[in-house]
Amino acid sequence: MKFIKSVIQEMHDVTWPNAHQLRKDASSVIGLSVFFVAFFALVDWLVQLFLALFQ
To answer: Where does the chain cross the membrane (predicted)?
Structure first.
């Protein structure tokens, strides 16, 4: 029971982000995800092109 009480107390002490911070964080995650998808797609395409030239 002590564990449950400490979890509940900790949940009350947590500072939850507001809507503005959530939008900012979500847009950062989405932006970085799109960047890495494009980066790895470009690297993959370049590797395939390089390997096709030397077949």
So the answer is: 29-54
Residue with tokens 């964080």: 25
1-55 pLDDT tens trace: 899 999 999 999 999 899 999 999 999 999 999 999 999 999 999 999 999 998 8
pTM confidence score:
0.67
Q: In angstroms, how far is CA 48 from the centroid of its own chain?
A: 27
3-state secondary structure of 1: coil
Domain membership flag for residue 14: no
What is the extent of the structural domain holding 23?
Answer: 19-55
Amino acid identity for residue 27 in this structure: S
* Residue count (the chain): 55
Total domains, the chain? 1
Is 23 a member of any domain?
yes
